[in-house]
Amino acid sequence: MNPRRIKVVTRLLLALGLGSALAIFVLAPPEPPEDPFRQDPRAERKYHRDLALYGGKANVLSAELIDGFDALWHGRTLAYTVAVLTLAGTWAYRFIATLPAPDSGPADERKGPKP
Question: Angle, nearest 10°, between helix axes 3-27 and 75-97?
Fold first, then answer.
């Protein structure tokens, strides 16, 4: 692939992704303050005890993983997620695009001359 084209596509990916992340960050509503009188039932000991009772430690860990993953897709945290995914995707594109082309040496010689 042409190195100039790789640079153009890389810059385009970074501009779109990081621009989107910036727009999300600016337009996202601020996090509402936590109400000290209204607690999340998932933060209570009884909830964790019930999870462990019915599904073991793996159930508690999976519930925490799901809650953590769900938190990545709301508000300003979404802007950070989009920025990280943009950087990872752009790096993957550049890595794959700059791989050398497969060598077509001895395998083509066995097939005979090309018409």
Answer: 180
